[in-house]
Amino acid sequence: MNQKLLFFTDIHGSLYAMKEILRVIDEEKPDKVVFLGDLLYHGPRNPFPKEYNPMGVAEAIKSLSVPSVLVKGNCDSEVDEMVIERKFQVRKTINIDGLKIICTHGHKLDKLNCKGAFAVIYGHYHVNKVTENDGVYFVNLSSVSLPKEGNAAAYAVYLDKKMTLKSFDGEQLFEIKGE
Length: 179
Prior knowledge:
By secondary structure, the chain is an alpha/beta fold. The chain has a single domain, classed as Metallo-dependent phosphatases (Purple Acid Phosphatase, chain A, domain 2, 4-Layer Sandwich). The protein contains 3 helices and 11 strands. The strands form 2 sheets. It has a 6-stranded mixed beta sheet with strand order 3-2-1-9-10-11, with helices on one face. Strand 4 and strand 5 form a beta hairpin. Helix 1 packs parallel to helix 2. The longest helix has 14 residues. It is globular and about 40 Å long. It starts with a strand and ends with a strand.
């Protein structure tokens, strides 16, 4: 049975963005959801996102019926773990379909050993960008609440050795394929 994964990042406490995530989860029907960090707090350099409501976002994450992974971002704290009632992981490696996907927030990419990975997926920079280095795809996923540089708020779908970045209006932005 093929597993479908969804990836989201940089909610920054936006209940509006969280509602969009819930809509996408309902439409895509994934087997697992991976949050790539910066879930509740907007950070000192960011403006308040639309419908800023960190407790509402926490409650929505806690009530998810699909299994989820929470990767720690640079704006996530111990208090966030207490409110969500879950521990964050510094990074998560997912082995699926013979491929290795490394999930991280992105603010410490230089310290990452990605040898043998199909892809490294991360957020932090709030832009959609896919690059390849030594056979590894680096997938930077934009913030769902505060995208930058004219990028669309986006999410990623992994299914059948393909990772597709999509905007919340369903436009396909990038696609990469594993072997």
